[in-house]
Known about the structure:
The protein is of the alpha+beta class. The protein has 14 helices and four strands. 63% of the residues lie in helices and 7% in strands. α2 (31-42) packs antiparallel against α3 and α12 packs across α13. 29% of the residues are buried.
Amino acid sequence: SGSGSTVPNRLALQPSNPRIVQLLDSWQIGAEHRFALYQAIVQAFPSSDKCKQRFLLLMVECPSKNKADVASTAKEAATGAIRDPISLFAHQRNILNAPSISALAKSEPVLFGLLKVFQDGKISDYDAFLQANGGQDKVLGQFNLDPALCRRNMQILSLCSLASEHEEIPYQNIAETLQIDASNSTKQVEAQVIAAVNSGLLQAKMDQLSQKVLVERCVVRKFDVPQWKALQQRLQSWKDNLGSIITAYEEAQSSAAAAATIV
């Protein structure tokens, strides 16, 4: 292998709505009728199909008078967002803001807490949550969630969180964050980076000689006050660097002009 490695990327940033949503918009169909139509569509898909999850998310956005249907839809959508937080990342990134999902904090506190971890937590938060709520089998089993898949997805999301905080990440930091076994950490770290890049959530290069990951682009899972401050600091750093370049250029120009005058 060389000093650097690049993996093809398809950074997933912009959500798009199914064609049927555009048609319903043009026909000015109301929320209640949309909910019923989406519900019929959802019933045609198996639980693991991302098309089903996409329409569940649309149902969550539609107000309905049937409280039982709204509650069951919210529970199913939350479970789907935990089962696969990657494929529909852009659509699910604000799922906690939906009123019916927020209501799960009271009706389904364990499910809501687990969803929150998958939305903005790291793998250490995930493990702590499982331990605090009776263990992996009890928490995941009641929602028919695959433990291996959940952990794999949490590792990808944790790496994305780390990548959104740093432009260069030493392999050791990744291994510590993802709780990777030190005996085979290099291969496992590189495998995790490749998985994250292939997921479409991260664009990065691996410098295998210096054992660092160079972040080019990454989705942001959470954007609150700390993230605004980090962005401000980064912009200020870019501004300072640009100012230094301009100053150096102007000095070089002055020196060149002075030398030309002497000659």
